[in-house]
Design goal:
Mean pLDDT: 81
Distance between the termini: 51 Å
Structural class: alpha/beta
Strand order of the largest sheet: 2-1-3-4-5
Largest sheet: 5 strands, parallel
Low-confidence stretches: 126-139
Number of helices: 7
């Protein structure tokens, strides 16, 4: 059983199983919820280290769960929002997504791991007191800025990987059409 507790809230048994299979069991303990109500119950009972949330859920939608997760005691839990239709997420929450990481379904293991890492980085960004904002390390680089830029690079890499995959599919389709 892993040291890192990850909660997957998704009505699809396939997605929940896929996440479980993609993560090393010695590092991750994967908890599962099939709807929003069950998911919030597990959030309060288990206090996971990260939440993966489908945006389209029965009983309590992903949007409603997201709103509940904005409470001060839950807001610091890293969050990855999943959806096969990014437009629906953007309709409710405008980009850039600063409070969570987004991953489009279906996803591969590399994309999943990158999304988890990016969500962890985003969750580390908490409001800093004014006197601390001025503190810089000896090289003059603000560490909060570096973390934010690293999160952005991770997000951009995930988007590039998605575009590469789509381009590959398009090229394959075009080759088939030309035969």
């Amino acid at each position: 059983m892993g040291n890192y507790k990850l909660l997957v809230i998704d009505d699809s048994q396939v997605i929940r199983a896929r996440v479980r299979e993609m993560l090393p069991p010695q590092e991750y303990e994967v908890l599962e919820a099939s709807d929003g109500i069950q998911g919030l119950d597990l959030v309060h009972q288990e206090r996971p280290d990260l939440i993966m949330l489908d945006f389209l859920l029965p009983r309590l939608s992903g949007w409603e769960v997201f709103q509940q997760l904005q409470q001060p005691d839950l807001k610091e839990i890293p969050l990855v929002v999943m959806s096969g239709r990014k437009e629906e997420v953007i309709h409710k929450i405008q980009e850039p997504f600063l409070a969570f990481e987004f991953i489009e379904k279906p996803f591969e293991q590399k994309q999943l791991l990158e999304a988890i890492q990016a969500a962890q980085l985003k969750a580390q960004r908490v409001p800093v007191p004014a006197e601390t904002k001025q503190s810089r390390d000896t090289s003059g680089v603000d560490q909060a800025e570096v973390k934010a830029l690293n999160a952005k690079v991770t997000q951009m890499q995930a988007e590039i990987d998605t575009l590469k995959k789509a381009m590959g599919q398009l090229v394959t389709l075009m080759r088939q059409q030309l035969k």
